């Protein structure tokens, strides 16, 4: 894939970057080099390679899925300016 000067101007406008006319040609070369590198990545054989979540192998830390003590409703609404029983009270915003 190749980028022309019109595409460079359009990308610059979408990115809200001011690009002078003399910089358009330089940016065109840079964008073409980037796209060429991305095309090279498509040629790499990744058959049988599992996706990685990290560069270093690590196990994901998980907590036990157990029921906790709960019954903290009073503590939860303790700092609320207005509450009704165990619920936050908020002003009505829709008529």
UniProtKB/TrEMBL annotation:
Keyword line: ATP-binding, Ligase, Nucleotide-binding, Protein biosynthesis
Signal peptide: none
GO biological process: glutaminyl-tRNAGln biosynthesis via transamidation; regulation of translational fidelity; translation
Enzyme class: ligase
Superkingdom in the source lineage: Bacteria
EC number: 6.3.5.-
Catalyzed reactions per annotation: L-aspartyl-tRNA(Asn) + L-glutamine + ATP + H2O = L-asparaginyl-tRNA(Asn) + L-glutamate + ADP + phosphate + 2 H(+); L-glutamyl-tRNA(Gln) + L-glutamine + ATP + H2O = L-glutaminyl-tRNA(Gln) + L-glutamate + ADP + phosphate + H(+)
Job of this protein: Allows the formation of correctly charged Asn-tRNA(Asn) or Gln-tRNA(Gln) through the transamidation of misacylated Asp-tRNA(Asn) or Glu-tRNA(Gln) in organisms which lack either or both of asparaginyl-tRNA or glutaminyl-tRNA synthetases. The reaction takes place in the presence of glutamine and ATP through an activated phospho-Asp-tRNA(Asn) or phospho-Glu-tRNA(Gln).
Family indicated by similarity: Belongs to the GatC family.
The protein, known as: Aspartyl/glutamyl-tRNA(Asn/Gln) amidotransferase subunit C
Species annotation: Aureimonas endophytica
Gene that this polypeptide is encoded by: gatC
């Amino acid at each position: 894939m190749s980028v022309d000067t019109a595409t460079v101007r359009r990308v610059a406008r979408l990115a809200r970057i001011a690009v002078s006319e003399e910089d358009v040609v330089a940016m065109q070369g840079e964008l073409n080099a980037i796209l060429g590198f991305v095309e090279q990545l498509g040629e790499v054989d990744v058959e049988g390679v599992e996706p990685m979540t990290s560069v270093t192998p690590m196990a994901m830390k998980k907590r036990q899925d157990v029921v906790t003590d709960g019954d903290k409703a009073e503590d939860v609404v303790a700092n609320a300016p207005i509450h009704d029983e165990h619920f936050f009270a908020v002003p009505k915003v829709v008529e």
